[in-house]
């Protein structure tokens, strides 16, 4: 029985032996674990977020320019102008239609000011126009369809 204990003691000591000095196999660092919180559930009472303003503006203006809305190419969210203003979103989305029979594409913009909540959207203005500089405050003095 003493021989078994001696063998076990020898194994446990060899398992804990440190690497020799100058070893090229240092221990690996422990992996970093990042925990992200689950997104908060939204309800009808949740205020609109920037992406909601973009989606609503695009949807309400899908037929503003006339013709077949399927031939429109819209700038994506990241390439559009979306900014908060007085508890609503000011949205400007550039769009281009495929060339008409004369071979000329129409380049325009959809614009909106929208606020409220998911369940109670409040439109200030919306419409389509020729392109303008959305950072120019005077350009927003528009008559929208509401």
Walk me through the structure:
The protein is α+β, with helices and mostly antiparallel strands and 146 residues long. It has a domain at 50-137. It has helices at residues 2-15, 50-60, and strands at residues 72-74, 81-85, 88-97, 107-117, 120-130. A hairpin with a 2-residue loop joins strand 2 and strand 3. The longest helix has 14 residues, at 2-15. It is extended. The model is unreliable at 5-9 and 11-17 (pLDDT under 50).
Salient structural properties:
5-stranded antiparallel β-sheet; alpha+beta; 146 residues
> How many angstroms does the end-to-end distance come to?
93 Å
Q: How many DSSP E strands?
A: 5
Query: Which structural class best describes the helix and strand composition?
Result: alpha+beta
The radius of gyration is 31 Å
Low-confidence stretches: 5-9, 11-17
Order of helices and strands: HHEEEEE
């Amino acid at each position: 029985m003493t021989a078994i204990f001696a063998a076990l003691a020898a194994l446990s000591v060899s398992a804990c032996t440190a690497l020799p000095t100058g070893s090229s196999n240092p221990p690996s660092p422990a992996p970093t674990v990042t925990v992200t919180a689950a997104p908060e559930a939204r309800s009808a009472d949740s205020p609109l977020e920037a992406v909601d303003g973009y989606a609503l503006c695009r949807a309400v203006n899908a037929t503003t320019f006339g013709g077949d809305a399927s031939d429109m190419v819209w700038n994506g969210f990241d390439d559009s102008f979306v900014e908060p203003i007085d508890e609503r979103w000011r949205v400007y989305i550039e769009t281009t239609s495929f060339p008409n029979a004369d071979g000329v594409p129409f380049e325009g913009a959809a614009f909106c000011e929208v606020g409220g909540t998911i369940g109670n959207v409040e439109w200030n203005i919306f419409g389509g126009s020729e392109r303008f500089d959305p950072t120019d405050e005077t350009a927003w003095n528009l008559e929208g369809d509401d």
